[in-house]
Each structure stands twice: as C-alpha cells, then as structure tokens.
Amino acid sequence: MLTSGLILAGVLSPRFQAWASSVDLRVLVALHVTRFVGAEFLVYFRRGELPFAFAVPGAWGDMAVAATAILVLASGVPSTRGRRLLYGVWNTLGLADLLFVVLTAARLGFADPDSVRALLRLPLSLLPTFLVPLLIASHVLIAVRLARGSEPAVDTGRGAA
Description:
Layout: H1 2-12, H2 14-22, H3 25-30, H4 40-46, H5 52-74, H6 80-111, H7 126-147
Helix pairs in contact: 1-2, 1-7, 4-5, 5-6, 6-7
C-alpha cells in the first residue's frame, strides 16, 4: 500500500512531483545503506525462524546492495555519462534484488505461512510495512529521474554539488 501511495503521489501531486524532481539522487541512493539490516535475516535463519531460501539470499543481496550504494556514493566518477551509467546499473540490480526477496517471501508465505512468521512480528515487520515500500519507491524514482536526464551529482568533498 505504501509503495502504491508513494508512486500515486508522484503521478498525481504536483507538490510531490516538484520535490521528487529536486531531491538529490545521492540522498535516494544513501537510503539504501539501511539495507545492511538484511544481515539480521542470517540471525533469524540460524535460530530456525526464517527459511534458507529467504534469509540467506535476502541477507547477502541486501548487504551487497547496501555496500555498493556506499561505493556509488563515494565513486567520484568524473563524467556525467559514467555517473548516470553507474547509478543506472546499481539501481537496476538493487531493484531486482529487492523484488526477488519480496517474491520469495510471498511464495514461501503462501506455501507455508509459518516459515515467514518472523516477518509479521516486530522488529522485522517494519521491513515489509515501511522500509521495503520506501526502497521500492526510491528505486522507481531514481529510474524515472535517470530516464528524464537527471544528472547524478559528484561529491567533491566540499559539500553538496
């Protein structure tokens, strides 16, 4: 619901569109550093509270996307074309990983609801209800902005570019 609401706001609300068009793409990428929280899936797997098919690929995928988000932000690629390519590749892989994890959780949940019950209790329930929708919406926004020709800024080490 939150993902749909954010995307709808982007389509229907001129104020939201203005904000979405002006927010620094680096801020949207930086949001994905929160995906290090996926490491917690390994703890839940080890305790037998999440299945391997969800926890292990989900954890490693999230950690890889979080780590590469930091690399994207720190890259300092000098050419605009190179930065756009870097952001685009990172965004595509990050969204693919996220959709894989969501679909895996749904598939496992339909087959055996008890296997993913941990995702329905705090603290993990915050992921599907809050963080994942924000992350998906940010990937969509990054893709739209790149498709419209937004220029990812380069960090010069002297503040915002």
